[in-house]
């Protein structure tokens, strides 16, 4: 998914100071684009917290009637230095990228695209999709992996069940289930369903930060209420967390990971380390889609963001850069 904000915020992301208790992050609405503009609710990044482990971006959308909202229509756009994680609850999205991967994103199946040094892709909800509902997240790649070749993986986790609960682990390990999907820093990602009145205690890695996004239902996290569409943050040091459903069924996404330990500069769809890198990525993208130069600088004579089949919708141009140097937000 592209960050379609006309004036994207530049953010130098690093772990915030240690929290003493659960921190609640409220969502903000961002139009995804198109004539009717399907809205997404964004809970990462925020001014007070830009990373949970290496997770650096979280968009949550739906359930939306595609006939009313126009659905997901995101033409070709670029990424660098990150992995995109697509997870659907309902509907279907067609993914196509410049590394040659073509896949259908379906409920209960993770699709993970590793941008590495650079990739471009498109995402369109399929004609048969009536209701679209899900999330897309980004993971910042550490410096050791951020220049790797782009790639793509998909995986359908087997559900783990207990009395009144079901969980699906799509990244990392939890409750005896381990995902084989490749990550480049210690991470966790899982969908958890609770029946009304169910309380579930989960053993967690105390080296991890965690986030709990409530998609539906009424939930208490370790006794603290969490509102729908909000993201609850838990700092390192916890070896367990308890999810308790109220009178309605609950669905949450649980994410986590060891603090990245690196500063990352995010702007639009790029993750880099400096103002100069971001400027270079933008210049190369604009040159490639405008055919001003056959190859962007520093890519060994190849197009950093690859090529796309003929006949696809026009690529998204990058927004204008700020007039000042990209720098941390206070």
What's the layout of helices and strands?
Layout: E1 11-13, E2 23-25, E3 28-31, E4 39-44, E5 55-65, H1 66-69, E6 73-79, E7 82-90, E8 93-97, E9 102-105, E10 110-114, E11 119-125, E12 131-140, E13 151-155, E14 160-162, E15 165-171, E16 173-174, E17 177-178, E18 187-194, E19 199-203, E20 209-216, E21 219-221, E22 224-226, E23 231-234, E24 240-245, E25 250-257, E26 264-267, E27 270-272, H2 275-290
Antiparallel strand pairs: 1-26, 2-23, 3-4, 4-5, 5-12, 6-11, 7-10, 7-12, 8-9, 8-11, 10-13, 14-15, 15-18, 16-17, 18-25, 19-24, 20-23, 20-25, 21-22, 21-24, 26-27
Task: Give structural notes.
The chain is mainly beta and 330 residues long. It has a single domain (21-257), classed as Jelly Rolls (Sandwich), CATH 2.60.120.10. Helices cover 6% and strands 44% of the residues. The protein contains two helices and 27 strands. Strand 16 and strand 17 (177-178) form a beta hairpin. The protein is globular.
Approximately how much helix is present in the residues? under 10%
The major beta sheet can be summarized as: 7 strands, antiparallel
Give the SSE order as H and E letters: EEEEEHEEEEEEEEEEEEEEEEEEEEEEH
What is the C-alpha radius of gyration, as a whole number of Å?
Answer: 19 Å
Number of helices: 2
CATH class: Mainly Beta
According to CATH, the homologous superfamily is Jelly Rolls
What CATH calls the topology is: Jelly Rolls
User: Looking at the structure, what is the overall shape?
Assistant: globular
Order of strands in the sheet with the most strands?
2-23-20-25-18-15-14
Summed up, the domain count is 1
State the secondary-structure class. mainly beta
Uncertain regions spanning at least 5 consecutive residues: 15-20, 291-299
Total DSSP E strands: 27
Query: What is the average per-residue confidence, as pLDDT, rounded to a whole number?
Result: 91
Can you name the CATH architecture? Sandwich
Q: What portion of residues belong to β-strands?
A: 35-45%
Could you tell me how far the N terminus lies from the C terminus, measured between alpha carbons in angstroms? 27 Å
């Amino acid at each position: 998914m592209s960050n379609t904000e006309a004036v994207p915020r530049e953010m130098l992301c690093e772990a915030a100071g240690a929290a003493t208790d659960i921190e609640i992050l409220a969502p903000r609405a961002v139009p995804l684009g198109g004539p009717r503009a399907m809205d997404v609710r964004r809970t990462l990044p925020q001014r007070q917290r830009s990373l949970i482990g290496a997770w650096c971006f979280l968009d949550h959308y739906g359930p939306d009637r595609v006939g009313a909202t126009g659905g997901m229509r995101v033409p070709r756009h670029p990424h660098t230095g990150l992995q995109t994680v697509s997870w659907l609850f309902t509907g279907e999205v067609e993914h196509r990228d410049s590394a040659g991967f073509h896949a259908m994103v379906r409920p209960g199946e993770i699709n993970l695209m590793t941008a590495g040094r650079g990739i471009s892709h498109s995402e369109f909800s399929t004609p048969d999709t009536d209701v679209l509902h899900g999330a897309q997240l980004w993971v910042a790649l550490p410096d050791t992996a951020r220049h790797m070749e782009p790639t793509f993986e998909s995986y359908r986790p087997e559900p783990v069940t207990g009395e009144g609960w079901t969980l699906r682990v799509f990244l990392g390990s939890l409750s005896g289930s381990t995902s084989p999907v490749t990550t480049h820093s210690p991470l966790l990602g899982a969908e958890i369903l609770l029946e009304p009145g169910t309380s579930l205690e989960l053993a967690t890695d105390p080296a991890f930060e965690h986030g709990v996004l409530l998609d539906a239902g009424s939930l208490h996290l370790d006794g603290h209420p969490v509102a729908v569409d909000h993201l609850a943050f838990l700092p390192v040091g916890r070896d367990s967390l308890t999810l308790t459903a109220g009178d309605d069924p609950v669905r949450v996404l649980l994410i986590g990971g060891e603090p990245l330990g690196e500063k990352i500069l995010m702007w639009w769809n790029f993750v880099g380390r400096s103002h100069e890198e971001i400027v270079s990525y933008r210049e190369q993208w604009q040159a490639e889609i405008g055919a001003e130069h056959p190859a962007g600088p520093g890519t060994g004579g190849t197009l950093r963001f690859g090529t796309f089949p003929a006949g696809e919708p026009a690529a998204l141009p990058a927004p204008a850069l700020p007039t000042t140097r990209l720098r941390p937000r206070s």
